[in-house]
Amino acid sequence: MREETSARDLPMLISVNAGRARLPGSPARLSVAFERCVALVGFVVLWELLPRLGIVSAAYLSPPSDVAVAIVRLFGNGEVWKHLSASAIRSISGLLLAIAGGVVSGFALGWFRRAERIADPLYQLLRQVSAFALFPVFMLFLGIGESSKIAIIVWAAFWPVLLNTISGVKQVERIFIDGARSMGASQGFIFAKVVLPAALPEILTGIRIAGAYSITALVAAEMIGARSGLGFYTLNSQETFQIPDMYAGIVLLALFGLSINQGLSLLERRLLRWRVGLAQNG
Amino acid sequence: MTAREHLPDKIVARDLALSYPNAASDSGHAVLKGFDLSVRDGEFLSLLGPSGCGKSTFLNILAGLVPQSSGDIRVDGEPVSAARHKLGVVFQGYALFPWRTVRKNVETGLEIRRVSRAQRRAEAEHYLRLVGLLDFADHYPHQLSGGMRQRVAIARALAYGPEVLLMDEPFGALDAQTRESLQQELLGIWEKNAKTVVFVTHSIDEAIFLSDRVAVMGRGPGRVKEIIDVDLPRPRDASLRHCAAFIALRQRAWESLSTELAHAHSHSYAPPVRTARDSIAEIYAGEPHA
């Protein structure tokens, strides 16, 4: 309830988020929690009933209770860690490479207008090239090993980071740069302490999109040629008619994607704390 | 302020010109031409003129943010690129970094000068106390009112100890009451710090209330048309606005400006975005006593 205290102590301060501060366990909060659960619970119940009542064949659609058993078994025999770590290493290293490349080249293209005008037609074309279409090319150059799988993830995740960084850097308001220059700032100071923080909201949006793309690319890469990873496990289970395990792989992939997304939005909230209440108060 | 007449010139601009290349004609659009101005050391000088006359452009050249096309401008005999460390700029609204707290905003100039953390903190607190905002040091700019933000901007420009303060319509976006109280506060700070101030405004009232001298600008292209000496006693307070000498000076500045506006209207030099009537209305709008 920090907001309420500060608003009382400092009457001139525009209170931030005052509407969101509610007591835990209050009826309003419970009803929000209920609303957020309803669709999820309904979905699981429907999923359980369809195969159990014989409406859909259980050979095609395993009920969630069977899927849960399969997941518990995966954790029990430790097999899950092999696949999860393989997927995590691929997607996180691919994402980090894409972020590094996208931010650096986005900074250069956003700052030097001429370079951007020259490069724009090229990257508008290249970003339309599907990462999956390029997989044979990556395999040709990099072989069947880890590097071609990481390359496909880098390709998919690079474009949103690049485009958002360019647009973020281009939109930095002149007055911030002039303000820093009027105080005698060097070019390095302007890049690191003015342009970067000013463009950061857009860059982080790009990184979040890249996170989602990297999971999609990961699954595809693992289904095409891999001996480990959640994508491989899912396809392999289907090929060996372990249908509950196939659904277990899908559920674990969804949870993995969710946790990547949560991690990135946590990072975003942490880095953009200064923006709290900015939208309301201009 | 007759005493200041014998002071050396701090800033000298001679035959300054700036034009932007224009696709439609070979000549280009002249913003400033034949601009001459001398600012004395320690004086408070206002540049008064209608919107679009080039007064902010002059300030940007002086701040080293925009290069002039021709002519000469010097601070203490040095070109502005070498004198940048002597200048502090307060822009019109929204120039504070929204991602930095008030304290970190004020520390920026010291950080650029690689001043130690402890000293930065002490200096920033000194200037925040000066503008009465020490209690808000850990707030973000968007949590403050417009008037408070401009006080932070003044503290930020003063914190690294510039010899000249350049102010580009700093109170232009504020309501009349806040504006008057900040004018008063600025005079108090100026009297304590004895800096040279170049203050750009389109409000006659504001220019006369604050300044030792008012340089009235004409436009098409922009130049200094007339300099009005403001021989009003200091320290000044709000009651000054009602005294006969103040009203006479305002009348004089108004006449100087209005002939300029009529002139600009008959010859359309600037793109006809706004008419003379708009500019006159705007000048009056900035004046609660008009």
Tags for this model:
heterodimer; A: 282 residues; mainly alpha; disordered N terminus; B: 290 residues; alpha/beta; six-stranded mixed beta sheet; four-stranded antiparallel beta sheet; 9 helices; 37% helix
**Oligomeric state of the chains in view:** heterodimer
What is the typical, i.e. mean, pLDDT of chain B?
Answer: 86
Distance between the termini of chain A: 23 Å
Give the biggest sheet of chain A.
none
Estimate the global geometry of chain A from the Cα principal axes. Answer: globular
Compressed to H and E, one letter per element, the order of chain A equals: HHHHHHHHHHHH
Low-confidence stretches of chain A: 1-22
Characterize the main sheet of chain B. 6 strands, mixed
- Hey, roughly how much beta strand do the residues of chain A contain? under 5%
Order of helices and strands of chain B: EEEHEEHEHHHEHEHEEHH
Q: Helical segment tally of chain A?
A: 12
Radius of gyration of chain B: 19 Å
Helix amount of chain B:
25-40%
SS-derived structural category of chain A: mainly alpha
N- and C-termini, Cα separation of chain B: 26 Å
Question: Which structural class do the helices and strands of chain B define?
Answer: alpha/beta
Radius of gyration of chain A: 24 Å
Count of extended strands of chain B: 10
Can you walk me through this structure?
The complex is a heterodimer of chains A (282) and B (290). With 282 residues, chain A is an all-alpha fold. Chain A contains twelve helices and no strands. The longest helix of chain A is centred in the last third of the chain and has 38 residues, at 187-224. The model of chain A is unreliable at 1-22 (pLDDT under 50). Chain B has 290 residues and is an alpha/beta fold. Helix content of chain B is 37%, strand content 22%. Chain B contains nine helices and ten strands. In chain B, strands 6-7-8-3-9-10 form a six-stranded mixed sheet, with helices on both faces. A four-stranded antiparallel sheet of chain B has the order 2-1-4-5. In chain B, helix 3 (102-112) packs parallel to helix 5 (146-158), helix 4 (117-130) crosses helix 5 and helix 8 packs antiparallel against helix 9. The radius of gyration of chain B is 19 Å and the shape is globular. The model of chain B is unreliable at 267-290 (pLDDT under 50). Chains A and B meet through helix 8 and helix 9 of A and strand 6, helix 3 and helix 5 of B.
